[in-house]
Specification:
372 residues; alpha/beta; 12 helices
């Protein structure tokens, strides 16, 4: 009853599903640790507050983290003491971007966005410190609008790829973790594909996994699916293989926190085992990934730094311990799915497929053709 009450209040205003609310000088982030039982926005006055929001997973999802970081520095620029000169202003902004990059290590969007903004700062030819700050704000604000456009393109390309791979008019799609509106500026990547299939009458059913230990699937993805009245079912992570076997799953679509040069993909823990199960059942497995999540500086997935989080995420639920005292805990937040298990990488520029006879992707070639 408590959950449905929150959902009913949200459904009176579609804007409330946005994880990021921004206007110049003000940033508010939806506290996703409180969902689905409480719908609360927190004011983020500066980069330090955003650093903690990212670290504590109040904002999460690779695209959303990067956008929030950029916009938090925009807000900070509106109330800091103006640096003494243009060079000092540039150095200040770049140091704050470096600080934001230390909040979480695995999602590459944060690094790519901060590095791109730092490169932009170096090119600013402004003469006064205020001009430097103003030009930075205008550039950083573009990340929000671009994310929405990119996500909608991913949704369309992904839906077309799923229908082509399955050769079916209506499909049942499984997804993992939360790669929806709550993980981005608004629309979503993997869940954006499901949204597009549903809006074009090609979705039979969506299946989401609970995604232990942080339950992003049951708390967040299920919330979004119910919110949009998309036909859907929630399952425990341990049910996925059997579900594929008996429930007619046609495709799996997941998001990504980092895709490297050969197509190996870091995503929420549990993705790797879904890919193995999909391969066994002959089910196409797609990764929906914006270009900002691609890292061609790393050759393969063994080089990706995998974040390990607090043991209490495993041992406790709602502050109540559920595991035996004294048991050892291993809690990696992500795993790496080998390219050999992935059917295609869906980006806003199109779908990356493997060349004939290859078990890996040539991501560098695709990026060279499409990344501006």
């Amino acid at each position: 009853a408590e959950y449905m009450g929150v959902l009913s209040s949200v459904m009176t205003d579609s804007d409330l599903l946005e994880p990021i609310k921004y206007q110049r000088g003000s940033l508010r982030l939806l506290d996703q640790t409180k969902l689905p039982f409480s719908f609360e926005y927190n004011d983020v006055p500066d980069a330090d507050a955003c650093w903690h929001a990212i670290r504590d997973m109040k904002v999460r999802g690779a695209p959303a983290i990067a956008i929030a970081a950029a916009l938090s520095l925009c807000v900070e620029c509106t109330h800091i003491a103006t640096p003494t000169d243009a060079v000092s202003a540039k150095n200040y902004l770049k140091s704050r971007l470096e600080h934001l990059k230390t909040s979480r290590p695995t999602a590459v969007n944060l690094f790519n966005t901060c590095d791109a903004l730092a490169a932009f700062i170096d090119q600013i030819a402004a003469q006064t410190p205020q001009e430097v700050l103003d030009m930075f704000v205008v550039e950083a604000e573009k990340t929000f609008e671009k994310d929405v456009q990119d996500n909608m393109a991913i949704g369309k390309f992904g839906a077309e790829a799923v229908l082509l791979a399955t050769k079916k008019d209506k499909v049942t799609v499984m997804t993992h973790c939360n790669a929806g509106a709550l993980a981005t500026a608004k629309y979503g990547t993997a869940l954006g594909v499901i949204r597009y299939l549903n809006s074009s009458s090609h979705l039979q059913h969506a299946i989401c996994t609970e995604t232990r230990p942080y339950n992003q699937g049951s708390r967040l993805t299920a919330f979004e699916l119910v919110f949009e009245k998309i036909p859907s079912t929630l399952i425990c992570d341990s049910m996925a293989s059997y579900c594929m076997n008996v429930k007619g799953v046609d495709a799996v679509v997941v998001g990504a926190d980092r895709v490297v040069a050969n197509g190996d993909t870091a995503n929420k823990i549990g993705t790797f085992q879904l890919a193995i199960a999909a391969k066994y059942h002959g089910i196409p497995f797609f990764v929906a990934v914006p270009m900002t999540s691609i890292d061609v500086t790393l050759e393969n997935g063994s080089l990706i730094h995998i974040e390990e989080r607090s043991p209490t995420e495993v041992t406790h639920t709602n502050s109540q311990r559920i595991a035996a005292e004294g048991i050892g805990i291993w809690n990696p937040s992500f795993d790496v799915t080998p390219a050999a298990l992935i059917t295609g990488l869906v980006t806003e520029c199109g779908v990356i497929y493997k060349k004939s006879g290859s078990d890996v992707f040539d991501v560098r070639e695709f990026v060279a053709l499409h990344r501006k």
